[in-house]
Amino acid sequence: MKTCVVLGGRSFIGKCLVDRLLKLGNWIVRVADSAQSLDHNNESTLLSRALSTGRASYFHLDVRHKSTIVNAIEGSEVVFYLDDIDSCNQDFYFGYAIIVQGAKNVINACRRCKVKRLIYGSTADVVLDYSHDIRNGNETETLLYSSKFKDLYTELKAQAEAYVLLANDIDGLLTCALRPSNVFGPGDKVLLPSLIEVAKSSWAKFIVGSDLTTSDFTYVENVAHAFICAENALTSHMLTVSGKVFFITNFEPTRSWQFALCMLEGLGYYRPFIKLPAVVIQLIVSLIKWMHSNMNSRDLKHVSVHNIVQLMSNTRTYNCSAAEQHIEYSPVVSLDDGIALTVKSFTHLAKELPSSRLGDVIEKSKVEELLGSGEVADILLWRDERRSFISFLGVAFLYYWFCECKRTIISSTAQLMLIIIVVLFGYARLSPKFYGSARLSPKISVCSISRTLPCFEVSEMFMRSFVRTIANIWNGVGHLAKSLAEGSDWSLFSKVVVSIYIFKLLVVNNFPTSIGVGLAFSFVFFFIYEQYDVEIDGLVGIVVEIMRQSIVCMTSRLPMPTPSPLCINTSKPTKSKDQRLV
């Protein structure tokens, strides 16, 4: 039985490594992490059983303090050192203290305690510059550290990795580092949650970037297996492994979007099919990030979009022949099996599928639900092309008659009624001559027409709903006026001013033109929207989000309103009877 320490044993990869070490049966595992204690309700059955039998133990430590590290690793042969992205919260001082200074403290503690082997979990992102593709890149010949890292966490990981490799063969300590690429699996906190966050947002309708980019993905259990392979290699043939770094993948490069869609479709999310250039999306996301940085805020949704854009923008594949040859690593779980196991573990984030998608009923389009299932919907959605075309001509005639003939509304209405009366009377007089005596008399025809005309009826429920709507609108206007009078909401003020100005510009100044454009637009827009509702919703959502962020950014810079002097109570407080007596 050999004793090992898993520093960061509660991290994403650390949990899987602990379970795999316990399955081997020849390790005494010390789990070390920053948490005060283990939550036994959330731990695996294997770890719980090992803790009860003494094959596993837990140590609370802080890598910023070397004494706690020494207490955890004293008497062990090997240290597996992993940290999590949660250890860096975009604060440079805190991240440097945990990742870089923490690595130095771990190295010094290992040398002091005579630990024989130290294996560091790095990341393949340390060689990415996000301006060039990486195709079949290897560790020594083609890839060096990036000159421009994607984030603070990756930059600090590169520094920590360099310190670990430089510490090799000092005071008998042998070191190496592993660089897994795009790790995923049960318990993932970065890759799949980012994909799900994007799938829930307005970006879900689009393929961001090129769908031809290829990347290497690595199932988490394969990464844990690679750590054990590296430890065995350091023990047996040290010269080819110590002081070296190895890329770790699933040996199955795949299209980035194909991988993402397999995960998302397994959780019930729809497959996008509209392609947007990565440059355009990157500019939009950069603008939103700049707005949030000015407001000292961090929106996780836009961070997720930024991560996915970076992932889908370039090809990144790695040559793992060094790991295969020197540490004898090969994947133990295929990519397809890893995707299936990951999807199964994230069922709590699955999208609830509507019954229509399961084939139970035919789902109505959004436009049909908005317009209802009556004649108006049939006309605007061109269900009957002849009827819709006649209706369009009728609307165009009414627009011309009332708006383009340069007459008043009353004059136009009177002339139109006069024409209708003449046409009806002429039809009644001339129809017997054209169709013969067999045709119904004009009197009977008029009576039949009057009987078929619908009566004007209003239900009590409709009137109650109408009155309630009017009351709600009145109360809303009153609340709006009160909020504006208080002068404390710049965002509300901006919305009202912009809305009134648009109403004045479109409706008041150009009323006839607005009516004509609106009527013609309704016959075109609803039909097009029914065909491409998903794409239009996505574009509108993106535009609205940019406008909302712009308004928030502008209003955050405005001065805070000062209370009016009239609102300040200048009257002196009156003393009570008891106070006067005292």
Task: List the main descriptive attributes of the protein structure presented here.
582 residues, 15 strands, alpha/beta, disordered C terminus
Secondary-structure-derived class: alpha/beta
Number of helices: 22
Radius of gyration: 36 Å
Low-confidence stretches: 295-302, 353-362, 437-444, 574-582
Major β-sheet, in short? 7 strands, parallel
Beta content: 5-15%
How are the strands of the biggest sheet laid out side by side? 3-2-1-4-5-7-12
- How far the N terminus sits from the C terminus, by CA atoms, comes to 84 Å
The global form is elongated
Report mean pLDDT, rounded to a whole number. 78
The helicity comes to: 40-55%
The tally of strands reads 15
GO molecular function, one term: oxidoreductase activity, acting on the CH-OH group of donors, NAD or NADP as acceptor
Subcellular location: Endoplasmic reticulum membrane
Family: Belongs to the 3-beta-HSD family.
Main location: endoplasmic reticulum
List strands and helices in order, with pairings.
Elements: E1 2-7, H1 12-24, E2 27-33, H2 45-53, E3 56-60, H3 66-73, E4 78-81, H4 92-112, E5 117-121, E6 134-137, H5 152-166, E7 174-180, E8 183-184, H6 191-200, E9 206-208, E10 214-215, E11 218-219, H7 220-236, E12 245-248, E13 254-255, H8 256-266, E14 274-276, H9 278-294, H10 300-313, E15 316-318, H11 321-326, H12 335-345, H13 366-371, H14 375-380, H15 385-404, H16 409-435, H17 442-452, H18 460-486, H19 490-508, H20 511-531, H21 533-556, H22 577-581
Parallel strand pairs: 1-2, 1-4, 2-3, 4-5, 5-7, 6-15, 7-12, 8-11, 9-14
Antiparallel strand pairs: 10-13
GO cellular component, one term: endoplasmic reticulum membrane
Main location: endoplasmic reticulum
Transmembrane segments: 408-430, 501-529
